[in-house]
Specification:
The complex is a heterodimer of chains A (about 240) and B (about 220). Chain A is of the alpha/beta class. Chain A has helices spanning about 40-45, 70-75, 95-105, 110-125, 140-150, 170-185, 195-200, 220-225, 230-240, and strands at about 1-10, 15-25, 30-35, 55-60, 65, 80, 155-160, 190, 205-210, 215-220. In chain A, about 35% of the residues lie in helices and about 25% in strands. Chain B is about 80% helix and about 0% strand. Chain B has helices at about 10-50, 55-65, 70-80, 90-115, 120-125, 130-160, 175-185, 190-220. In chain B, helix 1 runs antiparallel to helix 7 (about 175-185), helix 2 packs across helix 4 and helix 5 (about 120-125) runs antiparallel to helix 6. Bound molecules: adenosine-5'-diphosphate and magnesium ion (MG).
């Protein structure tokens, strides 16, 4: 589903991705962890072509993301993105946030788009918040709207960039539960997160990134119980304290 | 020393139609100039944030140059300067002079309004498959408009006031009408005071309209 090969990315002179390799198979959930500044967000943003790359290649669902002729607008319809700070559209209601892209990008009739959006929002526990504006919602509710917004495009892959790290502790669970449900339905997911409980329970593979490289990747039991790289051990000892 | 001037307000009632016609002329001139300013300003504002360096340089040059010169000099340049090469009607010169001049300020307001929208909004829109133009139209501009409206109203109030300068190139407006009334009656004090009141009514109405619009947007939000 996703093949990331030797990806190099710079911001000016700063080398942010240093030859990243990662495979995500169809239906897999891959959790990426690692210290701040490791390049995790940048990697996610190169997967949907939000950032250009300077070397290597990324293939999503058979399409070479950074090839010259790639229609990114079309490709991005298949790749849902959930941001750390939600990035909901503040001038639109929850329902409108979810329907705007299906209506304008996919040209789905409004009634049909709304029916689907209501279904998604209801499944995410937001039935009576549909007509609220983002400013009237809690962080956890906003992030669930953002998940519904991404799902409304019927993506084949979902990318999550620290979806719970801007949330108050009591709201983290509701978002993680929504993500677990999604994983349970077989969605292919790449999740940047420090939620190790989530990784243990849901991930098929956990990857550790530092200084623009994937230093270790393994199934959760192996990753947590028997990490090979000393930097991973150190990081885990800090985070699992 | 007190000059021997006695006030005589009958001049106002006698010449009221002339002065009110001046209001019509100034409003017509201002509205047309505002339309030019919006078209030119929105276009230049979008060009300023373009990633194409030539386009953004040209837009920046336009904005910086016009903001750095006096309107009166610009009007003279258009009417007399450009007018020496092409036949320019004074009304056309007035509308374009005022509009293109104000457009530079509108461009800055539009640019600042768009840039005040957090980057994450464009990223979210593009991530969902919207093109740049779709993201602008459905996500960025509707939000920017709320922030643009108040300074834009201020700019248009300035334009109404500045439009009095076209009388210098004999553009027909309220100020020119007032001057003509004074030439006929020598009633400077009364006529200029009344003219000032007429300008104030126009600008005050526009500023009230802008406050009303602002309130409307706030409630909807
Ligand atoms: N737009 C940008 N311009 C310049 N440097 C950037 C930009 N975005 C990220 N960086 C830098 O790239 C590095 C990796 O950032 P990021 O991918 O956000 O890391 P992470 O998500 O792992 O914390 C950091 O050093 C960051 O400062
Ligand atoms: Mg990050």
């Amino acid at each position: 589903m996703i093949q990331i090969r030797d990806v190099v990315k710079r911001y000016g002179h700063l080398q942010v991705l240093n030859g990243v390799n990662l495979e995500v198979a169809d239906g897999q959930v891959v959790v990426i962890s690692g210290p701040s500044g490791a390049g995790k967000s940048t990697l996610l943003r190169t997967i949907n072509g939000l950032e250009p790359i300077h070397g290597g290649s990324i293939v999503v669902n058979g399409t070479n993301v950074h090839a010259r002729g790639t229609n990114l607008n079309k490709l991005r319809q298949e790749i849902g993105f959930v941001f750390q700070h939600f990035n909901l559209y503040p001038h639109l209601t929850a329902l409108q946030n979810v329907t705007i892209a299906p209506i304008q990008v996919k040209k789905i009739p409004r009634a049909q788009a709304e029916a689907k959006a209501k279904e998604l929002l209801t499944a995410l526990g937001l039935k009576d918040k549909m007509h609220n504006y983002p400013a009237q919602l809690s962080g956890g509710q906003q992030q669930r709207v953002a998940i519904a917004r991404a799902l409304a495009m019927d993506p084949k892959v979902m990318l999550f960039d620290e979806p719970t790290s801007a949330l108050d502790p009591e709201m983290i669970k509701e978002v993680l539960d929504a993500m677990k449900a999604l994983a349970g339905k077989g969605m292919t997911m790449v999740v940047v997160s420090h939620e190790m409980g989530f990784a243990r329970e849901v991930a098929d593979k956990v990857a550790f990134m530092e200084s623009g490289k994937v230093l270790e990747e393994a199934p959760p039991e192996e990753f947590f119980n028997n990490p090979q790289n000393p930097r991973v051990k150190e990081f885990l000892s800090k985070i699992l304290r | 020393m007190i000059a021997g001037y006695t006030m005589d307000w009958r001049v106002i009632t006698e010449y009221l139609p002339v002065l009110l016609y001046g209001v019509v002329l100034t409003l017509r001139l201002s509205v047309m100039a505002i339309i030019v300013a919006i078209v030119v300003g929105v276009f230049a504002g979008l060009c300023r944030i373009s990633r194409n360096p030539i386009i953004s340089f040209l837009a920046t040059a336009y904005v910086e140059f016009l903001r750095g010169i006096p309107l009166l000099v610009f009007l003279m340049f258009i009417y007399f300067g450009v007018g020496s090469f092409v036949n320019l009607d004074v009304q056309v010169a007035s509308v374009f002079g005022l509009g293109v001049f104000a457009g530079a300020f509108v461009a800055e307001i539009v640019r600042a309004g768009i840039e005040s929208i957090p980057k994450g909004q464009m990223e979210a829109a593009r991530s969902s498959g919207m093109s740049y133009l779709q993201a602008m139209r459905f996500i960025i501009l509707p939000q920017a408009l709320r922030r643009i409206l108040p300074p834009l109203a201020g700019q248009f109030i300035a334009l109404i006031k500045d439009s009095s300068l076209v009388s210098v190139i004999s553009g027909k407006d309220l100020t020119l009408q007032a001057r003509n009334v004074i030439i006929a009656t020598f009633r400077s004090f009364e006529v200029w005071l009344f003219t000032a009141a007429l300008y104030f009514i126009m600008t005050f109405a526009l500023s009230q309209l802008s406050h009303a619009l602002e309130r409307k947007f706030k409630i909807e939000h």
